[in-house]
Amino acid sequence: MRVGVTTQRTASATLDVGSVLTAAASPRRYKLYELELGSEATPADNAFLWQVFRRTGTATGGTAPTITNLDQDDTIASTLVANQAPTVNGAGGSTAPLLSVPLNQRATFRWVAAPGSELVTNATASQGYATATPTAGGLVAVTSGWLIDEQ
Amino acid sequence: MAGPRPDGGYAIVTRDDGHVREYKTATCSHCSKIIIFGAGQDEGGFCMRCMKLICGPCADAGRCVPFEEKLAREEALDIRRRQLSKVLGLDERGSS
């Protein structure tokens, strides 16, 4: 089933914008096939570095954004666990980014995977990905939009 | 000789003045790193063993361990760990 999630926070150079993980119980694989990064703050020339990291544990604090089924007729609820604006990042570190994009605050970035080239998680507990802004020229609202195919 | 070719993925950067720039992308077959072509980043290489695109660090490593194989291995380990936990009465996550 395909789902969409939007994660937001006031930019931080150390804390994730948001993460999406497999469930702690009965986890299923997911494929991240589209990602949108940007800022909804008043346009300004601030430098950002957006990165995507692998996460192997749940974040602490923050809130749980809504996970929306893309097909309204999909009656099965998603098992994914989404988090935004955490106070402590989930395990996984910040040394091996899977995506690294320098971006002006005025710009938006959209990545679409080719079929078969999505970012995939394994079907074990609390595995997933996080978006982060290790360089945040302005502490303004930033957003990452995720489109995911849950297996 | 031509370098590695994108796999059909793409990235679009849209500026606030309406300027749009599109880049071709590929995902490393060994580690899942997203390679962006034409953006001044390392464009990686090609694994002659799995015949797929790989990122620079994976090309330098010189080993072929496809990411799908890593996922399957981790899942198999997790299943074994959960089975053992259940047998020992230590199962913390129920019967998933």
Architecture overview:
The complex is a heterodimer of chains A (about 150) and B (about 100). Chain A has about 150 residues and is mainly β. Chain A has one domain (about 1-25, about 45-150). Chain A is about 0% helix and about 50% strand. Chain A has no helices and eleven strands. In chain A, the strands form two sheets. In chain A, strands 1, 3, 5, 8, 9 and 11 form a six-stranded antiparallel beta sheet that branches. Chain A is globular. Chain B is an alpha+beta fold and about 100 residues long. Chain B is about 30% helix and about 25% strand. Chain B contains two helices and five strands, in the order βββββαα. In chain B, the strands form two sheets. In chain B, strands 1-2-3 form a three-stranded antiparallel beta sheet, with no helix packed on it. The longest helix of chain B has 21 residues, at about 65-85.
Strand content of chain A: over 45%
The number of distinct helices of chain B, counting runs of at least 4 residues, comes to: 2
Number of domains of chain B: 2
Helical fraction of chain B equals 25-40%
Gyration radius of chain A (Cα, Å) is 15 Å
